[in-house]
Amino acid sequence: MTWLDLPADHPFGLHNLPYGVFSVADEGDDAVRRVGVRVGDHVLDLAACAEQAGMESAAVWRGGSLDAFLAEGRPAWAAARAWLTGHLSNEEYRDCVEAHLVPVGDVRMHLPFSVADYVDFYASEHHASNVGRIFRPDSEPLTPNWKHLPIGYHGRAGTVVVSGTDIVRPSGQRKPPTEPVPTFGPSLRLDIEAELGFVVGGATRLGERVALEDADEHLFGVVLLNDWSARDIQAWEYVPLGPFLGKSFATSISPWVVTTDALRAARVPLPGQDPEPLPYLRGSGDGAGTAYGLDVHVEVEWNGTVVSRPEFRDMYWSPAQMLAHLSVNGATVRPGDLFGSGTISGPHRGTRGCFLELSWSGQEPVTLDDGGTRTFLEDGDTVVLRATAPGADGTVVGFGECVGTVRPAR
Amino acid sequence: MTWLDLPADHPFGLHNLPYGVFSVADEGDDAVRRVGVRVGDHVLDLAACAEQAGMESAAVWRGGSLDAFLAEGRPAWAAARAWLTGHLSNEEYRDCVEAHLVPVGDVRMHLPFSVADYVDFYASEHHASNVGRIFRPDSEPLTPNWKHLPIGYHGRAGTVVVSGTDIVRPSGQRKPPTEPVPTFGPSLRLDIEAELGFVVGGATRLGERVALEDADEHLFGVVLLNDWSARDIQAWEYVPLGPFLGKSFATSISPWVVTTDALRAARVPLPGQDPEPLPYLRGSGDGAGTAYGLDVHVEVEWNGTVVSRPEFRDMYWSPAQMLAHLSVNGATVRPGDLFGSGTISGPHRGTRGCFLELSWSGQEPVTLDDGGTRTFLEDGDTVVLRATAPGADGTVVGFGECVGTVRPAR
């Protein structure tokens, strides 16, 4: 058995090959950051291996982030994947590869790229309907625009953090409906949102748009994303210009960027869109080819108890539709742009992707395996998101984990 | 007469000294970008001059942007201003300075810094009331939260462009109230928003906040900002998560960053806040010292006709309050963060800072000097924002211009 003899269901087999940025944990806080590829239970130091192998474009992985690689675009991504697959599966390159493998237990992971603009969508009909019922009980759950366009808003790129970063409970203004004026203090309704995040590469020029058919040229990869949310702060501030401080304190992403190439076997039709969207959201064909969903199974663990299993295939809008929409006004797309899907929720309680929905705004507590109950997050609570998707030839593609622990307000 | 013998009312005298990034126009598109300081009708090549003068920290201005200088923070900004003032007013350094001056007519200006996160506020009571009356005629003009917190939202950092960049008319979904479903096409209600933009320097760590009293440590400077807005796209998309594509296609800023140091003589009390805001927006003193307004006179020119003269002193919330608010939840502040004030509008028609208000949603056309009338922007229209403020000792501080011309939709 060698490091390459991985069981077929290993989430980080040769069909996956996600990219990340690591340092050697022993080397401390100032250790050099390196671009790595996860292979089984090891991380390949990509620049070092590629340079030793004499790969021409190895320099793109120097610099301790995926930024330069993201900028290169689809042809470079395809070439790198072919090169990697070849070198990892051919005995001839074994020495060169093995010289640059680090056990995954010995590394510390970092934010894999510089987040350019961060947009968060709202693409689950179940989530949007539930939130509508909770936040606006006297109105229709879905706003009139919801089925015509993927609703989104810009979030704070500077507070996107890598999995494992502690989350300090935010303070801010809250005004319960029963009080005449707002008060200031730590959020009392701290929540998660289980999402996928889409990592964009390549670039466009101001005034150009990314057509639906071209979205795959810019969709480099996918991460797990936890859009931490302070529901009390959000509820008071969000009319009329949308969420701001209720979201901007932190957004966690998983360290491994799973490529869209690794997710080709996970493509599934969308659940169905009625009314038919406008042509720029339909593509030039019948829509099935470009506006596809992804069969990603997500798991939400709260202090060791799995409390929800959202299915990404239930999402109403596709990732390609979201990218086509966000650039249809000519907004520039830059390498490192990140967009979240919005909370992934399904039709049943056990598939709801945030605690606002899961506890129905605090009215239906969640029981954990240790016997404790929860509505919103308490200090010291840890949330882990995990996901898998079907890979090529019956394999499994793993996303790893997106973890965060809540620390008391300062 | 030398280049230094500037009339006392010159908007770029020694009391101003704004920073920008220029290249020599003759050298073409790929010319080297240099950090410059505007002095009279010249631009000083700052790194070259400082290096020749043996200034220790001159390297911070190498690199063709203000990024490194912004990161250094207030002590470095103060030292640079003192050094500049000394070298520009002392005959001893004349040769060294003159060797690095370029006539302003010979330069091309660029985006002065990499925009980290861009936030847009909504800090004019007159503007928010007018927009409320127009967009939500059946509700109170101001939402219940408006006087408790400076409402803001994140915009798209990647589409902040320097003055002079053409603005391509955006396309998107519009649904007039009279139509049953949305249609797709070029915006028919393209508008401007005349604002000031605040350029942030220094940095905080995740979970820390910038107290009101410390805001000046992070407020490096001020630019003119035109938050181009497609009102029809915005009106259809903005409920419930706020403006998105109606704003994200372009935001123009003036090329010269006027330092907050140059604006000390322009500080004025706020118009008054009732109800009294929560303590974190009041500061530790009586509020007058830290939550001050700025006496900046803005001018909006439409195809050569000045159509409005908004006064920044009419703003309800102060820049320091906006910064304290945006970080009170522990959101990181990074060098290069930019926040807009929101449209500057006063109580009278001639002080309204956007065409939505000026034409009262298209019902009251504006007559230009050439006899033409306008409600919203037509292709080929040019808008120029200009501003001045009182400087030290009776001088005038100029902001220069923020210009944009509308090009047809693609």
Give structural attributes.
homodimer; five-stranded antiparallel β-sheet; 2 domains; 26 strands; Fumarylacetoacetate hydrolase, domain 2; 410 residues; SH3 type barrels
Architecture overview:
- The structure is a homodimer of 410-residue chains.
- In chain A, strands 6, 7, 8, 13, 14, 16, 17 and 22 form an 8-stranded mixed sheet that branches. Chain A has a 5-stranded antiparallel sheet with strand order 4-3-2-1-5. A 5-stranded mixed sheet of chain A has the order 9-26-25-20-21, with no helix packed on it.
- The mean pLDDT of chain A is 95.
- The first copy, chain A, has 2 domains: 19-110, SH3 type barrels, CATH 2.30.30.230; 118-407, Fumarylacetoacetase-like, C-terminal domain (Fumarylacetoacetate hydrolase, domain 2).
- Chain A has 410 residues and is of the alpha+beta class.
- Chain A has helices at residues 46-52, 67-72, 74-89, 94-98, 125-135, 215-218, 231-237, 319-326, 355-358, and strands at 19-24, 34-39, 42-45, 101-103, 107-110, 118-121, 152-155, 160-162, 167-168, 171-174, 183-186, 190-191, 194-200, 219-226, 229-230, 251-253, 258-259, 267-268, 293-294, 297-302, 305-308, 338-340, 366-367, 373-374, 382-390, 396-407.
- Chain A contains 9 helices and 26 strands.
- The radius of gyration of chain A is 21 Å and the shape is globular.
- In chain A, 17% of the residues lie in helices and 27% in strands.
- Chains A and B meet through strand 7, strand 10 and helix 7 of A and strand 7, strand 10 and helix 7 of B.
- Chains A, B: Substrate binds at residues 122, 136, 234, 238, 343.
- Chains A, B: This is fumarylacetoacetase.
- Chains A, B: Mg(2+) binds at residues 227, 247, 251.
